[in-house]
Amino acid sequence: MTILKIKAKEDLKLSDLKKGEVHRVQVLVSDNAMGVPWRVPLIIIRGLEKGPVLGITAALHGNELNGISTIFKMIDAVKPDKLKGTLVMVPICNVPGYLENKRHFSDNVDLNRIMPGKPHGKTSDIYAHHFIQKIISKFDYLLDLHTASHGRVNSLYIRADLENEETRNLAYLQNPQIIVQKYDEDGTLRAWANDNNIPAITIEIGNSNAFQHSLIDETLEGILNTMKHLKMMRGKSVNLMDDAIICDNSYWIYSQRGGIIDVFPTLADKVEEGQIIAIVYDVFGQVKEEVKANRSGFVIGKNVSPNCEAGTRVLHLGVSEISPSHGDIPGNVS
Ligand SMILES: [Zn+2]
After folding, report:
1. 111 pLDDT more than 90
2. From the CA of 324, how far away is ligand 1's center (Å)?
3. What pTM, to 2 d.p., does this model score?
4. Fewer CB within 10 Å of terminal CB in the chain, N or C?
């Protein structure tokens, strides 16, 4: 077992990296309280031939870890001498959050609400600014890997603007259980990328603080399919979406009462309007509230933490104005 010494770099200059090789570097961003820069780890596979730069980012929320394993599996799946273009993978975007095993940055700000940060802002703003400028701005495409938050579970689902052709194509190349139409929410990494001509989607892979290998492998398959579509790898892209459900909107259903909650449907289940999806008990085992679905839809994610205050998120419901359908696959995908 050889462990390479990793070089630190002030900036990411892809053209300086040797073609046909796998590179591991740390990019220095803003200073921490030790007076030294945070080091963001990058794995870069530079192909021999020209092609696009595909960025894959994980753990922008520091406890969302399935993307890390996905990236590690990508290293084995992509051979630099067969690659066209460059794959830039960031297994841990939010370094302080990861170290504390939490979603937020060290100042308790959600990095995925403040992009692109500010050069003279708060602690998290400065980090976000350098992270965007030094790393993300070098991409041509972005797949941002997330999971559910702590105390909740997610299906394997995609958030993407399906009204935009490029991001719809990226979404339809994946292998998800559910795809949800989402306009880019302000301050997200995806929004910044799409605003800057870097087509981007979010892939939500199951649960926080875990490696769920069946979902990771399905994500991997979708990413490799995307690379074939972008002509970065040999082979034809295929339609992996046979069973995917496409929703044109989604929202959370909340509890009104507090107590002990039990949420019943399983992930990707269909629920009917009026169906009881959860019961809130008082601490003596008496039923206080039956939480019902106010529309028919599909379970994208749900709460799994039994302690429940009034106003707790119970179930993330994917809905469609028209009945959910399987999507059209991108033009040159067979
Ligand atoms: Zn996240």
Report:
1. yes
2. 25
3. 0.94
4. N
